Amino acid sequence: MAKYDLDVIARILLNLLQGPMGRTQLYMRTKLNYPRFLQYLEFLKEKGLLAEADGAVRLTVRGYEVAKALEKAFDELL
Questions:
Q1: Model's pTM, two decimal places?
Q2: Start and end of every ArnR1-like winged helix-turn-helix domain (predicted)?
Q3: Alpha carbon distances (Å) from 32 to 8, 11, 47
């Protein structure tokens, strides 16, 4: 995947601020097709923003920091 949509990345990270969730629940919230969702999931795991364990996707410490920064930026802009 050569291009990444910041909107999709933000949707994934901001949804996970609510807490860990299963792939299916997160996938439904992204409004992507499943293969594309899996590409984003892999990309974010490679960047150290997400982790998966016990059937749940969760933010890493770095992912939490990025998600909070995105949330703050959106709050200031909108």
A1: 0.90
A2: 6-75
A3: 8, 11, 20
CA 6 from chain centre, in angstroms, equals 10
Residue-wise over 32-43: b if at least 16 C-beta within 10 A, else e? beeeebeebbeb
Instruction: Tell me if residue 71 falls in helix, strand or coil.
Output: helix
What is each CA distance from 51 to 3, 25, 73, in whole angstroms? 21, 15, 24
Tokens 């629940």 found at: 25
pLDDT at 45 over 70: yes
- In the chain, what are the domains? 6-76 (1.10.10.10)
Contact between residue 68 and residue 40 where contact means Cβ atoms under 8 Å apart:
no
